[in-house]
């Protein structure tokens, strides 16, 4: 049984800026729990005993989190400083910590894929590599595959344009291999299983840097057996943009990625942390997730679809809905936040409002200002006048 997993947690998350200018993408919270913790928790629940985490960008923050969270967690967590150049290079540089067939998992997606079923499938198949596949409306933003009737991978393309994918599928459908069917709605999930011999391949071929762009095409060209595995109806979302980050949080409140849940004690659509004080006049419209040590003052309305982090203070007669408020924010009296993401340590002064916007860490929004819709505010900003998308 495969018991080792490599979690790739080194990406810069450029499309998630400004949130990732001050926090690594795997530590961004979904339901008041870092994305990375959801992945590690899923692996542990499926019997993986050794988890090797590859870090790079803002890696010191991830390392500090792992030490604090998992030091006595009963699972072996290894996170050496390796500074990889890309996904496959990360696995290459972690070879000393992997001594058996292994799983590779992306540390920046939210999913409830049955990773034990995937690993067991790989072992039984005898394939050199297996690719977890998910159904998507369009493969243009993902790795796309062409499979034969036995789900062997015949061709792999990373983020093909519609024209490239059309030409490729036509070639496989009408050429000498016309009996082979392109599965055009199946995309690479970012979860792989490999025989341990992959480490030798990577060592002998240092030019193979990325799994999608280099490794899988090279393996196919050199006759290695790669097989696809369907994740079925599993939940999966790439938390790669502010809109999908917000959607992942809302989906978690709706229970779509079950058994993943927000942090806190559940009660009728409300998850609440420790030492949180809610005034009796406050209206809570579930689903809502509240972190630790939150204070919400009189006559405020929280929800629906509000996620509020630790050490947040919400003033009187305020309203928060369809939004994520991260740790240590202060919202003064009569503030209004909807369809927005507020990073850590933000001050929203009295009667200010934020609509459909993303506010970077440690920013200040002065009294009575209207921010949004459609605004992206950089970390450390002090807003003194209204800002709206033209």
From TrEMBL:
**What superkingdom heads the lineage?**
Archaea
Query: One Pfam family this chain carries?
Result: GMPPB_C
User: Which Gene3D superfamilies does this chain map to?
Assistant: Hexapeptide repeat proteins (2.160.10.10), Spore Coat Polysaccharide Biosynthesis Protein SpsA, Chain A (3.90.550.10)
Give start-end ranges for the coiled-coil region(s): none
Family indicated by similarity: Belongs to the transferase hexapeptide repeat family.
- Listed name of the protein: NDP-sugar synthase
The record's annotation in InterPro entries points to: GMPPB_C, Mannose-1P_guanyltransferase, NTP_transferase_dom, Nucleotide-diphossugar_trans, Trimer_LpxA-like_sf
What positions does the domain Mannose-1-phosphate guanyltransferase C-terminal occupy? 285-383
Q: Which residues form the Nucleotidyl transferase domain?
A: 5-254
């Amino acid at each position: 049984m495969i018991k080792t997993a490599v979690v790739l947690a080194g990406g810069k998350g450029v499309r998630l800026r400004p949130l990732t200018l001050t926090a690594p993408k795997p530590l961004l919270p979904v339901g008041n729990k870092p994305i990375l913790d959801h992945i590690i928790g899923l692996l542990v629940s499926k019997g993986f005993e050794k988890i090797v985490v590859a870090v790079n960008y803002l890696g010191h923050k991830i390392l500090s989190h792992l030490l604090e969270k998992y030091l006595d967690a009963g699972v072996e967590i290894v996170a050496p400083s390796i500074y990889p150049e890309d996904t496959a290079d990360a696995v290459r540089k972690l070879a000393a910590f992997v001594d058996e067939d292994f799983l590779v998992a992306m540390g920046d997606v939210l999913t409830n894929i049955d990773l034990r079923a995937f690993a067991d499938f790989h072992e039984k198949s005898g394939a050199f590599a297996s690719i977890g596949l998910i159904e998507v409306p369009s493969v243009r933003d993902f790795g796309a595959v062409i499979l034969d009737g036995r789900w062997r991978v015949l061709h792999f393309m990373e983020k093909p344009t519609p024209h490239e994918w059309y030409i490729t599928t036509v070639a496989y459908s009408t050429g000498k291999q016309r009996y082979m069917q392109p599965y055009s709605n199946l995309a690479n999930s970012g979860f792989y299983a490999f025989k341990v011999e992959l480490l030798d391949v990577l060592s002998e071929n240092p030019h193979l840097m990325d799994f999608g762009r280099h490794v899988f095409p090279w393996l196919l060209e050199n006759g290695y057996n790669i097989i696809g595995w369907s994740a079925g109806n599993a939940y999966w979302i790439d938390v790669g943009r502010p809109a999908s980050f917000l959607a992942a949080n809302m989906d978690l409140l709706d229970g779509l990625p079950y058994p993943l849940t927000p942090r806190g004690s559940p009660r009728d659509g409300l998850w609440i942390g420790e030492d949180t004080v809610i005034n009796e006049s406050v209206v809570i419209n579930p689903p809502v997730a509240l972190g630790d040590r939150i204070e919400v003052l009189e006559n405020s309305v929280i929800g629906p679809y509000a996620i509020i982090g630790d050490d947040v203070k919400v003033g009187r007669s305020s309203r928060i809905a369809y939004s994520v408020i991260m740790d240590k924010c202060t919202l003064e009296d009569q503030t209004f936040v909807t369809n927005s993401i507020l990073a850590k340590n933000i001050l929203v002064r009295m009667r200010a409002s934020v609509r459909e916007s993303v506010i970077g860490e440690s920013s200040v929004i002065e009294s009575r200002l209207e921010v949004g819709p459609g605004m992206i505010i950089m970390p450390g900003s002090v807003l003194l006048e209204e800002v709206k998308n033209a």
